[in-house]
Amino acid sequence: MTSTTTQSGLARARRGLAPGGSGGGSLNRKSKLSGQTKRTFFWLLLPSVILLVLIHGYPLVYAGVQATHDGSLIDTGNFVGVDNFGHVLTSPAFWKAAQFTLWFTIVGVFGSWLVGLGLALLLRTKIPAGGTFKVLLLLPWVVPIVVSSTAWNWLVATPDSLIPSIFRNLGLGTPLFLADPHLAAVMVMVFKVWVSFPFMMMMISAALASVDTTVYEAASMDGASKWQQFTQITLPLIARSTYISWILMTIFCVNDFPTIYLLTGGGPVDATTSLVVLAYRTVFQDFQTGPGVAIAFLMTLTLVVVSVFLYRQIRKSSVE
Amino acid sequence: MNVQSEASRNFSRRGFLGLTAAAAAVPLLAACGGGSSSSSAGGAIKFWDMPWATPAYNDAAKKITESYAPTGSNGKAGYQIIQWNNFYQTFSSAIASKTGPAVSTGGGFQAFQFDQQGQIAYADKVIDSLKKNGQFDDFLPGVLDPFKSDKGYVAVPWQLDMRVFWYRKSLFDQAGVALPTDWASLLDAGKALKKIGAFGFATGSGAGNNIGNHSMIMMMVNNGGGVFTKDGQLDVMNDRNVEATEYLLELVSNGIIDPAAVSYTTDNLNAQWKDKKAAFGPYVLGVPARVGDTSGDIMVASPIAGPHGDKHGLVFPNNIMMYKNTPSQESSEAFLTYYMGQLKELWRQKLMNALPVFKSITEMPEFTSDANNVKIVKEWQPIAKTFAAQGTSLNANLAVLDGGQALNQFTQTILTGKTDAKTALTAFKTGLESVIKK
User: One Pfam annotation, family name (chain B) (predicted)?
Assistant: First the structure.
């Protein structure tokens, strides 16, 4: 078999075609809706739109007011324009938190995706007690974060905790996982991956379930190796789900307050303070409402930009 | 076959962005959400109380509230528990929407924060009533003064949350060392205790644990220092504070403070006491019950002297405040006067983990049956100072000091030991200056 033959076979496989089969063609046709149908849609959607505006729109506008004023939660105070944003953007604490948030998000998104992908592929194979295994793997996602953070604290917090004791018995010293700034940052990220991989696993499993197995048979017949099947078929076919899960996980990570706050409180010495933790502390511990809400606005803006980029990737990944 | 559904293709970018923005805004909006409030019957006083102890405490407080029989045209009172979680937001939202309480307990400096925003009704008439019924003279010395402002009494104290030194006797016996009486002997004892695997200054500054913060201020205050001048101006860099910070760093460098203490939650700290790792250290009232060892091995130590002979402890005088938004100010005052008269019931039932503010309660058999309580009243309460030290008057800035980032960063910097006193204090001062209202 020539390389060309293999490539063309993989290309057909990616399009979901049996060898020699005819294509389904593009489905990117805009449906033409009649005026009556559009009006019906409008009236059906209106209650939800009103609800969304009330639930999200009003608080967002009010938060905007607070971000541009110098008051408190009770009294909005005087208009200060973008002073709060300037104050925040010139604060070293903000940039330190932004840097941690970036790393936390990168590790959280890609770490959980890699683990989730590996396990989703493993669960496709016939393994004994696969159903039980799947349920067990979902536990980190299902268990309340308060419970899991307590469990992790119990595992690593003191020199006599289980994991430091194991290290000590192996002659590797006694690492203080939550007391050392670098180790605490790593620990929080590992904890995030542990909490999040079941979500990724389910997303990828769902995507894989929709892939016709004949695609792989076709690729095998064309002489594609397992690795080629994975890189040339599996990854492209789950690309859309992957990008969507990345968008969601990015939002989850950037906005993740409890994972960090319950495990380390943002410490030691701000080593694990993310932007959302900083925003919370600024508003509710330092009582600086304007700057705190300004941080939250900057987070939202960043998330929108990242999400737009990833959404474009989704559109690019469409199979024509 | 096509992996792209029609629905997803028809999902516009604009629609997607709207959804994304909405999803991203959720935490932001959550931070600005309104608090819950209970409606009350016309003219009835809303009394909001915090979970100060076990649920039995709130049951008893509710019973006291609902047993109130007002005289004349005064309204009755309704009781509601407000959780500590985001309590400031709950109060703020309720006050802003005019659905807040008429009377409440709350954070130690909350009354001053809301007074700053013009929401507090002064308690001078309640104090007058207490003078008439004899309770004014029953106050322990010094507990009322911190609440007196130029405009009047901002709140009325009802319990004292003390920070005192506790010790585990068996560990001192095992180490063959006497209880410390001053900083030098605390250092020596700490070194001896370290040899048997115990810590001579147990503290913690992990998630949700403010004991570490309080330890720092307690040692400054113990040495005659404090974060403020007598006039309430910032005074972080004074010599006594520098001395206290250097001493704390010495405890860290000698391993007398657990190197992992910076990350210890209250549960971790309790476990250190229970597992006989903690031999001596500052903590709240009721440590034996808190850590589950009522054998009598954990006891209150006497105050220790600083290098200049100063002996001071730390106290948070918790208080009951009244708000301007009330069906009737007279009703608020009448209810608060009544409630102050019923406080003894809470200690009679042994529901409180704090000192009472009335001498008569400290003399009740239910209170004196605990030798630790008696020792705290006798030895610690008279020398206790507040966060306002070196001053005496409480103010709204103390809330920023107590719960704010500046003190927490300072504490964690000290507990990690990778600093010197002046550098840490300078950063502390800068942090406070950026958030404290002049």
Answer: SBP_bac_1
